[in-house]
Amino acid sequence: MKHGVTKMKNTKILILTLSALSLGLSGCANVPSDAGQHPDDPYEGFNRNMHAFNVMLDDVALRPVTKGYRWVTPQIAQDGVSNAIDNLGEVNNTLNNVLQGKVDQGITSAFRFLLNSTIGVFGLLDVASWVGMERAPEDFGQTLGVWGVPEGPYLELPLLGPSGARDIFKWPVQTATNPITYVTWDEWGWSAAYAAVDAVDARSRMMDAGLDDMRANVVDEYVAVRDAYRQSRRMAVADGQIDEDAQLNSLTPLSFDDEEAEEDGGKPAEMEKEK
Questions:
Q1: Which DSSP letter does residue 57 get?
Q2: DSSP class of residue 168?
């Protein structure tokens, strides 16, 4: 029990330290004068500073480590790591599918966990998908959305990245339903090791999804990330059944400085640099 209390205290200290460091980046982040006017983002000034902090960590640590991981690790091993992490999330999927009234998907998620944890060698092999049992990923943020809880203001969290007031609650539930939490409860080192592997795997998947290309080609990376996150979460809560016009209306219109537009022939400077 003493180790568990120490672990919780260390986690709180880490989060508070990261938050304090992010606030110190206020001079580095590009915060527009009208920050906070967007109805979904009243804390835009804070969020942009936090985004700058997360990008800095990604540039100096996470992305280089992930590139090294992808270079030295065979694809079959990378797939095994991703499968194992997905398998640990099946308990969370089971709970939230049931809470949302999707009992059939909840049962499927439970059988996926049992099958992959045994025949699939602790989840390294996705045997369940081979036999036609598809994943049905759900989290407690989506469950609250299905229950009618408003999504609340957009937030960017240290290390965790894009979130929202409602989605904050998915993290403790996700932790509580992950079997690795209880296996490593009294072992801070193993918990940190798992968190590191999880972070590198998630970053590797983002590379596959084209995150780095997106970052290199958008005018305002913060706005692009915020709008993409909001839309993806709304789609997830509605299981893809959402009005397209409403989606388009939720996008933030881009505006450019008049002087900059004149110098570049009406095109943003970032786009000119790419040519």
A1: H
A2: G
